[in-house]
Write a structure and sequence with these properties.
This protein is mainly beta. The protein has one domain: Thrombin, subunit H (Beta Barrel), CATH 2.40.10. It is built from one helix and seven strands, in the order ββββββαβ. Strands 1, 2, 3 and 7 form a four-stranded mixed β-sheet that branches. The protein has a three-stranded antiparallel β-sheet with strand order 4-5-6. β5 and β6 form a beta hairpin. It starts with 6 loop residues before the first strand and ends with a strand.
């Protein structure tokens, strides 16, 4: 789920538990996700500032809950 405050959260489809959550950044700068598409093992996102990023789900899972999700 992407929120207008710049937070991205991923949930476990089986039980609804939060897998990861954090503020989204690109090159260290905060941004807001406006669109998402999941395919195979990756999440593609489009951001407020017109950028597109693709991040593998295993990278999201393995980053833990550090408070920040770097997309680039």
């Amino acid at each position: 789920m992407a929120f207008l405050d710049g937070t991205l959260s991923t949930l476990n489809a089986a039980d609804g538990a939060v897998v990861t959550t954090g503020q989204v950044t690109i090159e260290g700068l905060p941004t807001v996700i406006y669109c998402m598409d999941a395919a195979d093992d990756s999440l593609a996102v489009g951001t407020f500032d017109g950028r597109i990023a693709v991040i593998p789900f295993n990278q999201l899972r393995n980053r833990g809950n550090t408070g920040r999700i770097e997309l680039a």
